[in-house]
Amino acid sequence: MVDSNKSSGPPEETPSHNPNGNVPSESDLALDEITEKVQESLGLEKRHKFWESQPVGQFKDLGDTSLPEDPIEAPTPLSEVKQEPYNLPTMYEWITCDIDSDEMCTKVYNLLANNYVEDDENMFRFNYSKEFLRWALRPPGYFKSWHIGVRVKSSKKLVAFITGVPARIRVRDEIVTMAEVNFLCVHKKLRSKRLAPVMIKEVTRRVHLENIWQAAYTAGIIIPTPITSCQYWHRSLNPKKLIEVGFSRLGPRMTMSRTIKLYKLPESTVTPGFRKMGLHDVPAVTHILRNYLSRFVVAPDFSEHDVEHWLLPTEGVIDSYVAESSKTHEITDFCSFYTLPSSILGNKNHSTLKAAYSYYNVCTKTPLLQLMNDALIVAKQKEFDVFNALDVMNNDTFLKELKFGPGDGSLHYYLYNYRIRHTLKPSELGLVLL
């Protein structure tokens, strides 16, 4: 994601709290909310000067049906793309971060682990593992030059980071090669140096040098202009620990033992033929996933190579399961979740919150509710503390039923240099960015 946080605060541990959360499910309500927030932020001191100078959807154009849904600016001839990096303050220099190098990967890991996304109460901070970073940053066709660091010239200390990876994203009927921009992180002591806009411009320049002119990214804040606003929902797997560390609260009239009983899951999965995905499943998973993603307005255009990279299980990074028919040996259903722990700040008894994040899930025979309950069961067996899911795709059909609670924060999705006239409902989005 680019800047700010994904989920700003814990859900309550009671099922009786506000079921609607912060994000209206209807696009016109979401549009009203965005418009209201825009009006609040349009005081001169709060103008989004940087973003208003960029080829992104502008707040003033929301809902203007006369505007085409396509790139906002035409590509520039490659010879006219700036060849030299943007200027940094004199004590800093650009570096390309070789994520294959253990030494560099450790530096990137340490920067993110100490300075990346925290919740609003500064109780939790994302702790992406080195294995996760290598998975996230090396998809098919990736460019090393898009893994960008800023370091202090004298000490060689890494103090800022931003990345892009290439992806094919379908917007309605158009398949567009884009950069997925992520991991924008500036050391806490340098937040006043205005490094972030320069870093965004630099990653944009390097993307343009590869003749790619669009990008997708997310943020926990509203900038011009979200294509949709989603909400995180949280399902307790280890409610006692979640309450002890302040991620959740004990609901009114609830005891700890009643809460543990409320969230108890079966010992074993119930879907026939439910098993871990293997390499031989890639073609079948690609087929059902592509069919499923075709239903959404914005979604990735996955090849078999993409599915192999993003969805084949990797210990401690990505878990994927299929349901295979005992009669036909056909793969009928698929579910996946990735591992993103958070450091627990300032707690004597616990240092890490182990969180699973719902990724891509497809049902053709098994009810989605049953498939996702099985996903919760295997996540619990793997000792995850919480299972998180956005209300994208068809996720809203199982969230309340499976005892997920809405989080306090929103995640806003953005496209760079591509206009969508109307704000989408979360259920119209088929894209999960890490």
From TrEMBL:
Residue ranges occupied by any Glycylpeptide N-tetradecanoyltransferase C-terminal domain in the UniProt entry: 244-427
Superkingdom per UniProt: Eukaryota
Top-level EC class: transferase
All copies of domain Glycylpeptide N-tetradecanoyltransferase N-terminal, residue ranges: 71-230
Listed GO biological process terms: protein localization to membrane
GO CC annotation terms, alphabetical: cytosol
Reactions catalysed according to its record: N-terminal glycyl-[protein] + tetradecanoyl-CoA = N-tetradecanoylglycyl-[protein] + CoA + H(+)
Biased composition (Polar residues): 16-25
Pfam families for this protein: NMT, NMT_C
UniProt keyword terms in alphabetical order: Acyltransferase, Transferase
A molecular-function term among this protein's GO annotations: glycylpeptide N-tetradecanoyltransferase activity
InterPro entries registered for this protein in UniProt: Acyl_CoA_acyltransferase (IPR016181), NMT (IPR000903), NMT_C (IPR022677), NMT_CS (IPR022678), NMT_N (IPR022676)
EC number assigned by the record: 2.3.1.97
SUPFAM superfamilies according to UniProt: Acyl-CoA N-acyltransferases (Nat)
Region feature (Disordered): 1-38
Family in the record: Belongs to the NMT family.
Function as written in the Swiss-Prot or TrEMBL entry: Adds a myristoyl group to the N-terminal glycine residue of certain cellular proteins.
Name of this protein: Glycylpeptide N-tetradecanoyltransferase
Biological source species: Gossypium hirsutum
Gene name for this UniProt entry: LOC107906086
